[in-house]
Design a protein that fits this description.
The complex is a heterodimer. Chain A has nine helices and four strands, in the order βαββααααααααβ. Chain A is mainly α. Chain A has a two-stranded antiparallel sheet with strand order 1-4. A two-stranded antiparallel sheet of chain A has the order 2-3. Chain B is an alpha+beta fold. Classes of the chains: A mainly alpha, B alpha+beta. Chains A and B meet through strand 1, helix 1, helix 3, helix 7 and helix 8 of A and helix 1, strand 2 and helix 2 of B.
């Protein structure tokens, strides 16, 4: 028997879908800004494994000579990014959604099991909870990264008036590097996130848009004990 | 799934079918709403980007930059200083701008600083010796280029605030600005500086000019300024990006309106710092 189960509250869906294009444009305009002093690389000494970024990358996306434009976009959209993030945190705190999202002591161990499961090394099913340990860690980390982007961004935006912040982050140049590293972090998060969403399938994706999932519930012989039927609903709270 | 609200199981197959039909409708509406919101967002952003040009960027974006500046000006305080460093860390900054410096036959020895006092027409001239006679201040701060690089440099010169404390140029009443943290009510809100040939020009709020780390600078890393770094006199302020560190100051004037700014006319934020 199929049953409609509520999954994501409307507010969280809106926060999520607003953040997606805004963060994308923040990264895009950030690349226009970064182009003007593109000094970061992965490597040691004279060995460079990966330069951020090869000339061909800027050329392919016409990212050169757009510093002023990039700064203007960045300092407009920062408001949407920051306010949306603050409202999300406020909402999860007040609504109690944080209970599903914050990692617990078990989350780290469980996250490892999820990784083993996802690469096919572990056959046991994943915990039937809204968010498993790996998700709790990932979704909490990405919010902390958002806070990090906000703080490192402010530190390089107002390095004198917020000099205490700039100094706490290791100085102006470190704050800029941290701001950049966090951006690379979002891109990595995005790649894993998309892969997992594709893998989890339509039901899961629809829940992020429409809010509900359709679950298959074994038809119980005694229909009077309805509340016990959806096994997932009895899952332990995080 | 929410443990607090266990889903209600349909009692009959008809009820189940009805619930699934309702879910399908809800799903369709949600996707439609998301799509429309996306189109509306895109349209809104495109609208903003197509507002009339305001010095190189759409006026919609320029308006937000100015609002950001009003907010940061409200927080601004002259008592917050940029970090200072050991002089040993100082390096020679790269020469990144020549605008205004290519005047043929410029003679540093004949140079005079020309100041247009606030609200008065008579100009005043100052020789480099007069400026060097004022209290000398040396600071080692980070020069931050708007391109994203930075370099620690030791600068020496006279604080703009000390210059205005000695010469009453920034007030209508002709009173010197004794306390830079509380400038007189009749002080000019803005300062404009330009190269002698007026090809490069920057504007500052008076508060930034009066910051204790804002210098009329004549020495860099213990040596007299070279021409390519702005001799005989340049502006230095760690509050602002390098684009505001005007080299070879020719004229200073005090103004009621935001003075023209070379890079602000080319798409950059007029305030460019703090």
């Amino acid at each position: 028997m199929k049953v409609v189960v509520e999954k994501h509250p409307l507010a969280i869906r809106w926060f999520h879908w607003l953040n997606f294009p805004v963060l994308a444009l923040m990264i895009w305009s950030g690349l226009w800004i970064y182009w003007a002093n593109d000094v970061y690389r992965l490597g040691w000494g004279r060995t460079t494994l990966l330069k951020f970024f090869p000339q061909s990358f800027y050329a392919a996306f016409h990212m050169d000579h757009k510093l002023a434009q990039g700064m203007s976009w960045h300092f407009v959209l920062m408001w949407v990014f920051a306010l949306n993030g603050l409202l999300y945190v406020l909402y999860t705190a007040l609504s109690g959604e944080w209970r599903y999202l914050l990692p617990t002591r078990r989350s780290f161990r469980e996250a490892w099991q999820v990784v083993l499961h996802d690469v096919g090394l572990r056959k046991e099913p994943l915990p039937p909870r809204k968010f498993n340990g790996a998700q709790q860690l990932a979704y909490t980390t990405v919010i902390l990264m958002g806070a990090g982007s906000l703080l490192t961004g402010l530190a390089i935006y107002k390095p004198t008036q917020l000099g205490w912040l700039t100094t706490a982050l290791g100085g102006y140049e470190w704050a800029r590097a941290e701001h950049f590293a966090l951006t690379i972090g979002y891109v990595l998060f995005f790649l894993v996130h998309i892969a997992q969403v594709v893998r989890a399938g339509w039901n899961n994706f629809r829940a992020m848009v429409a809010g509900f999932e359709i679950q298959d519930v074994p038809t119980a012989p005694t229909e009077t004990t309805a509340p016990a039927a959806p096994s997932a609903a009895t899952a332990v709270r995080p | 799934m929410l443990p607090e609200t266990p889903p209600k199981l349909p009692a009959t197959p008809e009820e189940e079918a009805a619930a699934l039909r309702a879910a399908a409708t809800r799903s369709r509406r949600s996707f439609l709403a998301l799509g429309l919101a996306g189109i509306a967002g895109l349209a809104g952003w495109r609208y903003l980007l197509h507002t009339p040009d305001a010095d190189g960027i759409p006026s919609g974006l320029r308006g937000v930059l100015d609002a950001n500046a009003r907010l940061s000006n409200a927080y601004y305080s002259n008592t917050r200083l940029a970090p200072e460093f050991a002089a040993a860390r100082a390096r020679t900054p790269r020469v990144n701008g020549h605008v205004g410096l290519d005047e043929a036959g410029f003679d540093p020895a004949a140079w005079r600083l020309v100041v247009q006092p606030y609200g008065r027409s008579a100009r005043q001239e100052f020789s480099i010796e007069q400026l060097k006679a004022l209290p000398r201040t040396e600071i080692t701060t980070e020069l931050k280029c708007i391109e994203g690089w930075s370099v620690v440099v030791t600068w020496a010169g006279v604080r703009f605030a000390d210059f205005l404390a000695r010469y009453p140029l920034a007030t209508r009443s002709g009173q010197p600005l004794a306390d830079p943290n509380h400038p007189a009510a009749d002080a000019a809100p803005y300062v404009g500086l330009a190269t002698p040939n007026a090809a490069y020009y920057v504007g500052l709020e008076l508060a930034s000019a009066l910051h204790p780390q804002t210098l009329l600078c004549y020495e860099m890393n213990g040596q007299p300024l070279t021409l390519e770094h702005g001799a005989p006199l340049r502006l230095v302020t760690p509050l602002k990006y390098g684009i505001k560190h005007l080299k070879r100051i020719g004229t200073i004037r005090f103004a009621d309106q935001r003075p023209a700014d070379y890079w602000a006319e080319r798409g950059y934020d007029w305030h460019a710092g703090h």
